[in-house]
Design brief:
InterPro entries: RlmKL-like_Mtase, RlmKL-like_Mtase_CS, RlmL_1st, SAM-dependent_MTases_sf, THUMP_dom. By secondary structure, the chain is α/β, with parallel strands linked by helices. It contains ten helices and 15 strands. The chain is elongated and about 75 Å long.
Length: 385
């Protein structure tokens, strides 16, 4: 037990319960939900596993020190005192991300700079030389979080945001973030036990995340690197053991995953990304107008999509959303249809009553994830009056 330590998984607003559930399933201890984060306890192997397997985490931080500060000089002094040479050498590089929620400290960039100065000055005073800053691939990436007068210093074990899964070579104008896609799927209850469809699939993100959930494939298997691989205590053998154990938990999938898009370039991009993710055997993408389509077969269908918001495409929104409702009602019996939108006005034109509404954010845009249950046969009329 002595090897266990506290970690913090950062996530997006609204996904805290989903992430907590993921952590519980992975075997984390002492799970506590916060705002846009969930804290938990595990060992080094679990830190590796969390980075590989969590679908709704953006970063996994390993807290190092917390202290009170009342001025920028205070911050400098406290950071300078810490034994940074235990974690990096003078020839290594560092990067610092800072977030501040404080009346005393208002500029995150200045906090990053002050922290960097303290660390490099310590090295210069001790060794006569100083490490460099490398914003892209540093040996050590630190996270400084200041809340009022409390400063939390953490090691960032992930590096680049975990939404960068490593399978995207091509994206559309406004691609959906991979963590957002996975979170929407998990919130919608997608478990791989039915057919799945994204009728406006863009570059294929939702389809890929849906297939990875269905087959229990670790989402970050295709990533080139995690930050912890540059740490002094990096244990490659342990990482390979963890990787092998999670790969053994993959499962078979016996249903269909299908994507439509009207744009030929989107269809090509989606197919490329699906190939990069090694998921071509599970996902089919076609150029097809959803509004001219019909449900195939009698089986239950789970649908999730991200329709255009009118932010980037010139679309007659009331007409567009009315067509979504009409198509679902007339052509997709036996379907649970979910979609996310930030065009809260346009929802009124769908003409169906959502059975669930969940508040989320897509980037800075307040959005709603909506569920429409389309029933088979006579139930349909009864439930949608």
């Amino acid at each position: 037990m002595e090897n266990n330590f506290k970690m913090i998984a950062k996530t997006m607003y609204g996904f805290e319960p989903v992430l907590a559930k993921e952590l519980l399933a992975l075997g984390a201890m002492d799970i506590k939900e916060g705002t846009r984060n969930v804290s938990f306890v595990g060992d080094t192997g679990f830190m590796y596993k969390a980075n590989l397997c969590l679908r709704t985490a953006i970063k996994i931080l390993k807290p190092y020190r917390s202290f009170k500060i009342y001025s920028e000089e205070d911050l400098y002094k406290q950071i300078y005192e810490l034994p940074w040479e235990d974690f990096m050498d003078v020839d290594d590089s560092l990067a610092i991300d800072a977030t501040v929620h404080s009346e005393t400290f208002t500029h995150s960039k200045y906090i990053s700079l002050k922290t960097k100065d303290a660390i490099v000055d310590r090295f210069r005073d001790k060794f006569g030389r100083r490490p460099n800053v490398d914003l892209d691939f540093p040996t050590l990436r630190l996270n400084i979080h200041i809340e009022k007068n409390f400063c939390n210093v953490s090691f960032d074990s992930s590096g680049q945001s975990l939404h960068k899964r490593g399978y995207k070579s091509a994206t559309n104008i406004a691609p959906i973030n991979e963590v957002l896609a996975a979170g929407l799927l998990l919130l919608s209850g997608w478990d791989g036990q039915s057919d799945f469809m994204d009728p406006m699939c863009g570059s294929g993100t939702i389809l890929i995340e849906a297939a990875m959930i269905a087959c229990n494939i670790p989402p970050n298997l295709n990533r080139k690197e995690f930050a912890f691989e540059r740490w002094k205590d990096w244990d490659e053998d342990l990482f390979e053991k963890i990787e092998a154990s999670v790969l053994k938990k993959m499962r078979e999938f016996h249903f269909n995953i299908k994507g439509y898009d009207t744009s030929p370039s989107a269809v090509h991009k989606a197919i490329d990304n699906i190939e990069n993710a090694n998921l071509s055997e599970f996902i089919k993408v076609e150029r097809q107008d959803f509004f001219a389509s019909q449900k195939e077969g009698e089986r239950h269908l789970h649908m999730l999509f991200n329709p255009p918001y009118g932010e980037r495409l010139e679309i007659d929104m009331p007409k567009f959303y009315k067509e979504i409702g009409d198509t679902l009602k007339q052509s997709y019996p036996g379907t649970d249809a979910w979609f996310i939108t930030s065009n809260l006005e346009a929802i009124k034109h769908v003409g169906l009553r959502p059975s669930r509404k969940i508040k989320l954010y897509n980037g800075a845009l307040e959005s709603k994830l909506l569920k429409y249950q389309i029933y088979q046969g006579s139930k349909k009329a009864k439930f949608q009056e």
